[in-house]
Amino acid sequence: MATLLNHALRAARSTPAPAERAATLLVAGAGGPLGSAVLEHVLATQRFAGVRVLVTQALQTSVKGLETLIVAPFDAGNGAAQATPIRPALADTALVVFDVKRHANGREEAFLRPEPRTLPRLAGWLRDGGVRDLVVVMPHNAASLPQALKAGLADLDEHAVVELGFEHVVFVRSARAAIGLRSDQWLQRVADGVLAQLRLMTPQPDQPVRSNKVARFVGELALRLPHSAPGTRVAAPELLWQSAQHADPGPLVQAWLAGEALPAPSARRMRL
Fold this sequence. Notes:
Radius of gyration: 21 Å
CATH class: Alpha Beta
Strand order of the largest sheet: 3-2-1-4-5-7-9
CATH topology: Rossmann fold
Shape: globular
Largest sheet: 7 strands, parallel
Number of helices: 8
Structural class: alpha/beta
Number of strands: 9
């Protein structure tokens, strides 16, 4: 009898702890080139318990694991703007992607397209809805972001988001190609030409990374963030460039979140 009891106790002690529950994810801004790449990536990996995407109109989808949530457009204007009702337990983690508009097909119009000026209101709504961890992807034109802001908070809106009480907040500063429009003024065209030459001198780590590479980095970040130390972090463009040099960005993201030395690139030649 004692032997059976000892075996039972030993088995109980050796039983592995249950695996941590996979987090649920909510994506805002999935209509643009980067946002759609992020959504496609997180759905393809199937590593989240569920994925919700914010839309402003009904969108029929048969994608497994994807749920649409209709909301009113967020407005940073006066208090008379239409309020979006809060739905309990929106998600564990939220991804907000600020992206350029595209017209690939009519489906893109259904996705919520957040504007940077609405970030505090959107973030507040997410926090009230139970979101604990927030990742904000804020692309910047190459060679236009001051060095001091690459790894720090850029404006009062970002400070306001940090003050909302999320467990984790990450601002991802993804470099993108400058969107240039030809001016009617000859002097402005000369200035634009000079700036274009300067962009050619932009260090490679500051140059834009392909959308699918950024999506892989952001997906790993959203997955691993809840298990890291709480706090606010800023992912500079150089970090995304380093991530693009790895076949699997997971170890780099894990090391960065833990404050450890980043692993050496796995790519034989530098790539974007």
